[in-house]
Specification:
Two copies of one chain form a homodimer. Chain A folds into two domains: about 140 residues, Nucleoside Triphosphate Pyrophosphohydrolase; about 60 residues, Arc Repressor Mutant, subunit A, CATH 1.10.10.10. The first copy, chain A, is elongated, with a radius of gyration of 20 Å. The model of chain A has no long low-confidence stretch (mean pLDDT about 95). In chain A, a hairpin with a 2-residue loop joins strand 1 and strand 2. The two termini of chain A are about 35 Å apart. The first copy, chain A, contains six helices and nine strands, in the order αββββαββαβαααββ. With about 220 residues, chain A is of the alpha+beta class. At the A-B interface, strand 5 and helix 4 of A face strand 5 and helix 4 of B. Chain A binds a DNA duplex (30 and 30 nucleotides) through helix 6.
DNA sequence: TATACTAAGTGTATAATGAACACTAAGTCG
DNA sequence: CGACTTAGTGTTCATTATACACTTAGTATA
């Protein structure tokens, strides 16, 4: 093991997460303030070192739980970043994941407001530690692309929702307007939605039918 | 560093490559016979440990050059496999890449036939070491998917080619027949091809116009 | 040297999909 | 009860995808 490490690199391994949500009509990502060097006091993506015997995905879910309290949300491996100089102190390779969480799931009393954690609009990012801005750019690019050809956006919706809310979610992700009638036609044609029978009666207007997703995996996910 | 390694995993890091080519109308992948334990004498994907100061991509290109003698071919990072038990002896995480090489480039005198290296049809694979069958399945899936919506297939073509050869290449990758007229219309409509002016006069039939790709990157690659 | 053979090369009609577009319905509020 | 707000709905037109068969230009050979 020692002779080996003279020739071969045995870097630290981390997982870093781009955890997205949508709130107040903005695509947001979770950032945490670093308490330690390097980049102390800088914002960064939540992450952590891989533990002994832990799979990469398990590590990612652990970080997710630690920071958000949630599990059972959409998550996929994004890319592995291994530039030799990405950590100024020692060689660290990070396996990046991205996750989607409906804001409603987060906005609970238990996720108390803390100053070392924030949800930042992806179009107004502070300076980030390490190569986290690259990671984030890549994650946003993938999310936008997948919104176009998969139903990944579902990962951001609450249990029940109006079609207009679903449309708004798509519009926020792809950063463009959609035609209401065409959108509704297309969504209903996929056959992934079902009416709940309930109606949303908030607001001074005609009530909206509430929908939910049929129970199934996210299609076309890879 | 020592205290750290008591808590955190510092695994060996390898890169493994699914190097594809097409020969005799079959999609083939390079396999190498392992000379060492574990899995001695088993076939495996070509790979190797990450060296000090080496980026992941550089490691992948190094392995590619060692095994094929080529560079400047299409390669992309595929996925990172980190199951704690994927190597029976110690923790090793592998970053998988896939590469595409035109057979003509490989079929040179210098790539002498050796018995510890083979090109295996992806539909007739031997037993593979580690989790390499999973890696390969994932690579084939990605290649097939990308053939449908990108021009990645270009990475397998020689400098000049007939349109019928290009069509055959697509048919091998996606494992389905295509309509000749529609295929030609679609390809020429992309505006990525240009006539070379030369003709292929092999065979007892009408000569075919030879085409080449306009010089540009592979589109839609991520 | 004519005929058989082979792969190259070409166009059109139909179906399916995508895009543009405006009004009525059903509630609440004042 | 009239003003306001969002929900909900169809049709036309343009674009794209699909299905499909014959002529062309060479070589081989009888």
């Amino acid at each position: 093991m020692n002779t080996k490490s003279e020739i071969y690199e045995q870097p630290g391994i981390t997982v870093d997460l781009a955890i997205f949500t949508v709130n107040t009509n903005k695509l947001k990502v979770m950032l945490v303030k670093r308490a330690e060097d390097p980049f102390r006091e800088n914002w960064s993506l939540p992450g952590g070192f891989l533990l002994h015997g832990e799979s990469l995905q398990a590590a990612a879910y652990r970080v997710l739980r630690e920071k958000t309290g949630v599990k059972n949300v959409y998550m996929e491996q994004l890319y592995t970043f291994g530039d030799p100089k990405r950590d100024p102190r020692s060689r660290v390779i990070t396996v990046a994941y991205f996750a989607l969480i409906p804001w409603k799931v987060l906005d609970q009393p238990e996720s108390k407001k803390v100053t070392d954690l924030t949800w930042s609009s992806v179009d107004q990012l502070p300076k980030l530690a390490f190569d986290h801005k690259d990671i984030l750019k890549y994650a946003v690019k993938r999310l936008r692309a997948k919104a176009g050809y998969s139903n990944i956006v579902y990962g951001l919706m609450p249990e029940q929702f109006r079609l207009s809310e679903l449309q708004t979610m798509y519009e926020i992700i792809i950063d463009d307007k959609l035609d209401k009638r065409n959108f509704r036609k297309r969504m209903l044609a996929t056959n992934l939605l079902q009416e709940t029978g309930e109606k949303d009666i908030t607001g001074a207007h005609r009530p909206a039918m509430l929908y939910q997703f049929k129970k199934m995996e996210i299609a076309f996910s890879n």
